Amino acid sequence: MRPSIFVLILCAISAAVAPARAEFPVKPIKLIIPFGAGGGSDGFARVIQAAIEKHELLPMPLVVVNADGASGAVGTRQVLAANPDGYTILQIHQEMFAASVSGRVEYGPDDLEPIIQAARSCEFLAVHKSSSFADLQQLLDYAKDNPGKLKQAGDIGSSSHFLSAKLMSLSGVRWAIVPTGGTSKRFASLLGGFTDLALMSSPWLERGKNDLRPLAALGEERFPEAPDLPTATELGFDVSGCLIRRYWAPKGTPREVVDTIADAIEAAMTTDEVKAHLANSREESSVLRGEKLKEAISAEYQEYVEVLPLVKETSGK
Amino acid sequence: MLSAYAHVFTDGLIWIIIGTSVGIFIGSIPGLSGAMVISLALPMTYFMSGDNALLLMVSMYVGATTGGLISATLMRMPGTEAAIMSTLDGYPMAARGEPARALGLGVLASFVGGMLAWLVLTLLSPQLSLVAVRFGPYEIFAMAVVALTLIAAVSRGSLINGLLAAILGAIVSMPGIDPINGALRLTFGFHQIDNGFSLLPVLLGSLVLGQVLVDCGAPRQATAPIAGQARAAIRLSDMVRYRWTFIRSSAIGTWIGILPGVGGMTASIASYSIEKAISSSPERFGKGAEEGILASETANNAGTIGALVPLITLGIPGSVITAILLGAMVVHNLNPGPLLFVENPHIAYIIIAGALASNIAMFAIMWVSTPLLGRLMYVDKAYLLPPIIVFCFLGALSVSNRLFDAGAMLAFAVLGYLMHKARIPAGPFIIAYILTPMAETSLRSGLVIYEGSFLPLLTRPVSAVFLAIAVLSVVYSLASEWRAYKRKAG
C-alpha cells in the first residue's frame, strides 16, 4: 500500500511541476475544428497537422478534433472553456464574427487570443450563364428598378450574408436572400432557376465555367485563374470577401506558447504539402501575426457590426 | 472508361473488399456510422492514390448502408438510420424463427436495389441530375408532406398514437438555429442545444438504447429456427416473384437519392409506405411481410447509389457521406464539379465502377455470412447488449466531441422506453424528427423565392400532384380507421 501511495504522490508532484519547467509542448495539442469532416476548414487543418508532423515543426503532434454544430459555436465554446495552456486551440474563419455580432453567442473575438492568420479563400459573385445580367451594374440597376425581385442564394446569418449586406449598403439597393446552404446548394439553386445570383468560392471559377457567369471577384486582387474578372473594388464597391482561416487560443494563454504554435504554423505554410493543398483548393497563403493580426481582426469585426442592421433587415421573419 | 473498370477489378479490388467489409461491419453496429468511419479514413487516404482512396470510401459507403439491416433484423435496432424501416418487418420475421431468411431477403433487396440504381447511374446520370435541380423548395416541401402523411399508413391500427409520436418527433426537431432568420429558437438560454438535438443521440437513444431498456425488462425469446431455412436464405427465385416490388422500390429509392439533401432514410419510408398502401394484404405489414423488408432495403441501397448521381455530375453532395467524398476529391486534386465527366472522366468512372464492384462484393460477403449471422439471434442478449451500449456512447460522443450528446441520448432512451410501454410507435417519431426540418426549410425558402405566395404550390405541377396524394392519403387512412371503428362498434 505505502509504496503505491508514494508513487502516486510523486506522480502528482511531477505532473504539477513538469509542465512549468519543460518546453512547450510536452503533450499533443488538440486542434478543434468547429465544422464537419471533409469540408474546407477540416481539409486545411489536416494538411497543416500532417506538415507539422512530417517536418517535425513541433516536438508533439497536433490532434484534429471535429466539433461540428451551431455554425461553429459548439467547437468554439469548447476552446473558450479550455485551460489557457496552449493544449487546446481553435481554427475558425469569420463565422465566429457573424455569430457574435448577431447575438447568437455571447462571446466575441476579444474573448480569445489570436495565434496566427494562415490562409484565405476568396469568393466571387456569379449569375447563371443564361442570366440577362452581363455585369454587376446591370444586376444592381435591375434590383433598384424592381424592388424585391432579385434573389440571392445564400445562408441567413452566415458570414456570406454579412458580405452581401455590405454590398447592399455600398450600392444602396436591396435584394432577398434565399436560404439554400453551402456553395454546391447555391449552384443547384442557380441551375434550377430559383435564384438570380450567389456568392461562390474560388474553386467554382473552374468547376462552374460552363454554367456560371462571374460578375465580380471579391478578393483584394484579381484571381490568377480569371485575370479578366474585375474585382468589386475596381467596379466601385469597396468590399472584399474572403474566408480567412485563423488560429485562436483561450484568453490568457502565455505569449511564448502562442508564439511557439504560431512559428510552427508559419513554417508549415511554406512546406510543399501545404502549398500543394492551397493550389488544389484555390486558396492563398495570407500569414499575419501579432499586432497586425489584432488590428485586422478588429477592423473586420467593426465592418460586421456596421452592416448588422442590413443583415437583420434581409433575414426572414 | 474501360481503364477505370479494369483498375477497379484488378489493383483496386483489394480496397473494394476492405472497404465493403469494414462498411458492413460498422453499419451493423448501432452507434458506429458510415459517416464516422469514412471521415476517419479520409486522412489515411492522403497517402493513397486518388483512385484507390475513392474506391475505399465508396465501398465503405455502400457496405455501411447494407450493414444496417443486420442489427435491424436481428435485434430491432437499426444499425444506420436508413435501416429504420427494416426493423418493422425484418425483426418480426426473425423472431418467429426465420432470422436467416429475413436477412437473406434484406441482402437480396440491397443487391437488386443497388444494381438497378447503378444502371441508372451509368446510363442516365447527366439527364436526371438536370431534372433534379429543377426540383425546387416547394416540390421538396410537397414531397416531405406526402412522406409525413404516410406516417398514418405506417401507424395504422393506432392512428392517434402514431400522430402523437409524430408530434413529439416534430417538437424534438425544432430547437436550434432558425433556418430562415438565423436566430436561436426554443433553446431557453441553454447553449448546449444551440444546435438542436443531433440525429445520432436521438436515433441511438429512442430506437437503440430504448430497445435495450425494453430487452432488460423483458428478455425476448426468439422462436427456435425453422429447420432448413438458413440454407435457403437467399433465393434467386424471389427476384422473379417480387419483381414489381423491386422495380417500384428501386425507382423510388434512386429518385429520392438523387435529390440533394434527401437521403436513404426518406427513400425507405416512401418505398415501404407505398408498398403497404398498394398491397392486397396490408395487414401483414409490420408482422414480418416479405415485401416490407424488400421495399425498405431495396430503396435505401438504391438511394445510396442514387446520391452519387448529383455528386459526379454536378459536384453537389446530397448527404453527409457524399460531402466527405467530395472533400476527398478536392484533397486528391480531382476537381469535382459539373465538369468532372468532361475533364476527368476517369474519376467519374472509377466511382461508378466502384459502386458496382462494392455492390457485388457486398452480396458475396453477405451470401457467405448470412447463415452465420442468423445464429446471432440466439446468442444470449447479456453478451450483446453491453457492447451495444458502449458503441452508442461512442457514437453520441463523436457528434460534437462533448458529453451533452450522451446525456441527451440517455434522455431519449427513457423516452423511447416510455413510448414502448405506452404503445406509441417509435417509427413515426423518428420519421417526423427527420422530415419536419426538411418540410419547414423548404417551405420557408419557397416563400422567399415566391415572395410570400403559397399559390405556386398548387400551380407547379409536381408539388400540386404531391399535395393531392397527401390529401388522398389522409382521407384514405381516416376512412379505413372509421371502417375499423364501425366494425368494432357494430
Automatic annotation (TrEMBL), chain A:
Family stated for the protein in its record: Belongs to the UPF0065 (bug) family.
Cross-referenced CDD domains: PBP2_Bug_TTT
Keywords from the named record: Signal
Signal sequence bounds: 1-22
Protein name from the UniProt record: Tripartite tricarboxylate transporter substrate binding protein
UniProt keyword Signal present: yes
Pfam families xref list: TctC
Keyword Transferase tagged: no
UniProtKB/TrEMBL annotation, chain B:
Transmembrane segments annotated in the record for this chain: 12-42, 54-75, 102-123, 135-154, 159-177, 197-214, 307-334, 346-368, 388-418, 462-479
Superkingdom of this protein's organism: Bacteria
Pfam families the UniProt entry points to: TctA (PF01970)
Swiss-Prot/TrEMBL keywords: Membrane, Transmembrane, Transmembrane helix
Residue ranges constituting the DUF112 domain according to the UniProt record: 13-431
Keyword Thylakoid in record: no
Name of the protein in its database record: DUF112 domain-containing protein
Protein species of origin: Nitratireductor pacificus pht-3B
